[in-house]
């Protein structure tokens, strides 16, 4: 059975789209093609940098057994969306902003799996086109976040056969909106990580980590600098590791790059377990005024836990539920905790290594229940249900 995954904003190497779902579907016996975008004629990596490798310059190529078709991205505007709405309402297949529809249609797939609101439009239009030709295909919408309840999404959801989302709270909201659409939660968890021997420096140091892109809404560079300053005064061999990058608009980039206790570097997905092996605590701050961050279960959360690292997070519904269930971290029950609030919890764990160790063990036990191997089973069940 042929599967076509459609992306526009995501990298062709995106961890969820490619490393997890596409590789799992291939393992399950599906013929998988990803239609992925290029900017300025070049595909881009998860860190948004252009990839100049000649192997990926062709319009079509194969990588790790997955086929790729590429196209030049057109950024979607309100004007595009209004035209898309009109095309949906009139059931016409004559408006497409770029070549995504054309490339995806050429795969003649049985299941079209869209990972973004705007690529769901192409998936639905392909379903309508092929239905007119006598072929019934299925559409999956993999909603990585909570989309606004718009006219555009309401029209698209009429053609969706299964909705995948990333947290239980978001599932509950979507169920109320679209009661007739089956919904499954697939967490963004990694494959279960066997316990590694701790880094030699682990016992005599204290390392806090943040994984991902630091912005004012995620991580907040101001908090990171202040936390590092406070920890420096009271902890021996302290460091704050950023496994990612500082967003280019952050004026604190230079301060972080020059800070004696903060290190920042981009780490490939496959190398994260080794780097996390020296980490004691994971730091998460999300500006939860945004609904998606309020209900988030982010990659970094699971990366920490999978490596036996407790987490310290601010007020957030789904992470709080999980932490309280498994006792694998600390929730600061404030929307916007201060750096000192975080420091107090980090210092508590710095002093109480027994509690730190117990939370780490609880984290690993929790991941056995929801590791990617378990999520792969859920993905398999979805695809089996669409073949009947």
Name its key features.
15 helices; Rossmann fold; 388 residues; eight-stranded mixed β-sheet; 2 domains; 40% helix; alpha/beta; elongated; 19% strand; six-stranded parallel β-sheet
Q: Could you describe the 3D structure shown?
A:
- The protein is of the alpha/beta class.
- It folds into two domains: 2-187 and 372-385, Rossmann fold, CATH 3.40.50; 202-370, Rossmann fold.
- Helix content is 40%, strand content 19%.
- The protein has an eight-stranded mixed β-sheet, with helices on both faces. A six-stranded parallel β-sheet has the order 11-10-9-12-13-14, sandwiched between helices.
- A hairpin with a 2-residue loop joins strand 3 and strand 4 (66-72).
- The mean pLDDT is 95.
Structural shape: elongated
What strand order characterises the main sheet?
A: 3-4-2-1-5-6-7-8
Residues in β-strands, percent: 15-25%
Rg, rounded, reads 22 Å
Characterize the largest beta sheet: strand count, sense, and whether it forms a barrel: 8 strands, mixed
Give the helix proportion (percent range).
40-55%
The overall strand count is 14
In the predicted model, the low-confidence regions spanning at least 5 consecutive residues are none
User: Regarding CATH, which class of the largest domain?
Assistant: Alpha Beta
H/E series: EHEEEHHEHEHEHEEHEHEHEHHEHEHHH
Mean pLDDT, all residues: 95
CATH fourth-tier homologous superfamily of the largest domain: Glycogen Phosphorylase B
What is the annotated CATH architecture of the largest domain? 3-Layer(aba) Sandwich
Domain Glucosyltransferase 3-like C-terminal: 230-336
Protein name: Glycosyltransferase involved in cell wall biosynthesis
Domain Glycosyltransferase subfamily 4-like N-terminal: 23-188
Keywords: Glycosyltransferase, Transferase
């Amino acid at each position: 059975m042929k599967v076509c995954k459609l992306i526009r904003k995501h990298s062709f190497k995106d961890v969820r789209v490619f490393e997890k779902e596409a590789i799992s579907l291939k393992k399950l016996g599906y013929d998988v093609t990803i239609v992925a975008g290029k900017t300025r004629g070049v595909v881009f990596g998860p860190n948004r940098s252009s990839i100049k490798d000649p192997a990926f310059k062709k319009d079509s190529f194969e990588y790790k057994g997955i086929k790729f078709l590429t196209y030049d991205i057109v950024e979607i505007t309100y004007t595009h969306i209004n035209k898309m709405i009109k095309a949906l309402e009139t059931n016409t297949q004559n408006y497409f902003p770029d070549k995504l529809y054309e490339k995806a249609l050429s795969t003649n797939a049985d299941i079209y799996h869209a990972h973004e609101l705007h690529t769901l439009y192409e998936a639905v239009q392909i379903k309508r086109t092929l239905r007119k030709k006598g072929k019934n295909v299925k559409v999956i919408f993999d909603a990585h976040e909570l989309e606004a309840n718009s006219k555009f999404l309401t029209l698209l959801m009429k053609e969706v056969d299964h909705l995948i989302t990333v947290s239980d709270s978001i599932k509950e909201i979507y169920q109320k909106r679209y009661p007739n659409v089956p919904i499954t939660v697939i967490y963004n968890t990694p494959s279960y990580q066997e316990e590694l021997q701790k880094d030699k420096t682990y016992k005599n140091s204290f390392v806090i980590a943040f994984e991902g892109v630091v912005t004012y809404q995620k991580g907040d560079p101001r908090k990171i600098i202040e936390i590092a300053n406070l920890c420096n005064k009271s902890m021996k061999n302290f460091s704050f590791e950023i496994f990612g990058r500082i967003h280019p608009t952050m004026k604190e980039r230079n301060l972080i790059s020059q800070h004696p206790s903060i290190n920042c570097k981009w780490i490939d997905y496959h190398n994260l377990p080794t780097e996390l092996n020296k980490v004691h605590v994971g730091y998460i701050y999300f500006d939860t005024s945004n609904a998606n961050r309020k209900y988030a279960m982010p990659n970094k959360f699971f990366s920490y836990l999978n490596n036996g690292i407790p987490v310290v997070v601010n007020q957030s519904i789904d992470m709080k539920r999980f932490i309280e269930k498994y006792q694998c971290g600390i929730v600061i029950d404030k929307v916007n905790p201060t750096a000192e609030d975080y420091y107090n919890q980090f210092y508590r764990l710095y002093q109480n290594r027994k509690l730190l160790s117990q939370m780490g063990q609880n984290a690993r036990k929790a991941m056995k229940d929801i590791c990617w191997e378990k999520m792969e089973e859920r993905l398999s069940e979805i695809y089996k249900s669409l073949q009947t």
